[in-house]
Amino acid sequence: MPTHAPPLMRPLLIVVLFVLPGCPPSEQASPATTNSPASGATSVEPDPLPTNYRAHTAYSVDLIDPTTGLPMPAELDRLEPTLLREVQRITSQPVLREALNSAAVRGTQWFERFENDLDQAAEALRASVEARHVPGTPLIRVYALDTLQTDANQDAQTILQALGEVYMRRHKQAIDASISERRIAAQRALDAAEDAVDDRTAALKRFLLNNPVSSSSIERSRLNALEAEALQRRLRQAELRRESALTKLLEIRQQTRGFLGYAISEEYPPQPAR
């Protein structure tokens, strides 16, 4: 089997060259280049690769601007926790098991070896699929290793394709769920703000009933007036918070898609090792 993955050329850290579906990445080595702040010189950060694999694919993770919903330039320090989390997620047991349930995977020679033993197949698949963050880039590469024992060359790509479909579907479900969660949170905030307005309105009414501003005592009248003004200010603050919470809820209700703060896209479809 070949021992090197086709790379992606990446100018200066945050710019990623997207590969069109069906087009293999470049045949050259795949270092990530960064500029040294001390000297201004360019250093090379190697992309660690498995030594033996049958097929590979890649995904790009982008930060999303919360005001526009559009991808932002990659800020790798902010993105790194998400990348590491997604590396673990794409080869997690729930994703692997769901991929094993696909008709395409069950039709492979590789799956036939397990005689429909899903537990054994899941264990073998976990040992034969590896995901890695490509240093200095927003990319995650996924490899079907040589330990994926099969005589059919296409099996590795079929399995990576099914794995990717499950992974991307789950990501979309998380996005869809996020908007529901935000709506619930916004409604709770509005309910709390309305309760605060009701409480402060009642407190002001009680005070005015028991402490008339007009009193036989000039000093008492002055103190009552000051306290009434303080209660009115707190009521107005609560009303402003209620207006803000209502505006936020209405904005979220108008949104048609959720927001996770990042988006995942397929960088290139499964490719055979070269």
Describe how the helices and strands are arranged.
Layout: E1 32-35, E2 42-45, E3 53-63, H1 76-90, H2 93-100, H3 103-106, H4 109-112, H5 118-128, E4 129-133, E5 139-145, H6 155-210, H7 218-254, E6 262-272
Antiparallel strand pairs: 1-2, 3-5, 3-6, 4-5
Helix pairs in contact: 2-5, 2-6, 6-7
Give me the strand/helix succession. Answer: EEEHHHHHEEHHE
The value of Rg in angstroms is 29 Å
Q: Report the uncertain regions.
A: 1-46
Number of helices: 7
Tell me the structural class.
alpha+beta
Q: How far from one another are the termini?
A: 8 Å
Structure explained in plain terms:
By secondary structure, this protein is of the alpha+beta class. The protein has two domains: 32-176 and 267-272, no CATH class; 178-254. Helix content is 49%, strand content 15%. It is built from seven helices and six strands. It has a four-stranded antiparallel β-sheet. Strand 4 and strand 5 (139-145) form a beta hairpin. It is elongated, with a radius of gyration of 29 Å.
Short description:
With 274 residues, the chain is α+β, with helices and mostly antiparallel strands. The protein folds into 2 domains: 32-176 and 267-272, no CATH class; 178-254.
Can you give keywords for this protein?
7 helices; 274 residues; 6 strands; 2 domains; four-stranded antiparallel beta sheet; alpha+beta; two-stranded antiparallel sheet
